[in-house]
UniProtKB/TrEMBL annotation:
Name of the protein in question: Uncharacterized protein
Record's keyword terms, sorted: Membrane, Transmembrane, Transmembrane helix
Transmembrane spans: 15-34
Highest taxon, organism lineage: Archaea
Length: 52
């Protein structure tokens, strides 16, 4: 039932669906990018502290 509604919505608005998919992919990519930067910074900080 829910899949039928979703299928109808995608069929009725394919451009909007594509835009939403691209936006979600960009948000996920940005999240992973920022997370990687913060984790690397944290590891670098710890490595610098242990060298003293």
């Amino acid at each position: 039932m829910v899949l039928d509604l979703l299928g109808e919505a995608v069929a009725a608005n394919p451009v909007l669906t594509a835009i939403l998919v691209v936006m979600i992919a960009l948000l996920l990519g940005a999240y992973l990018f920022v997370r990687r930067i913060l984790v690397s910074a944290k590891e670098g900080y710890r490595a610098g502290q242990s060298e003293r």
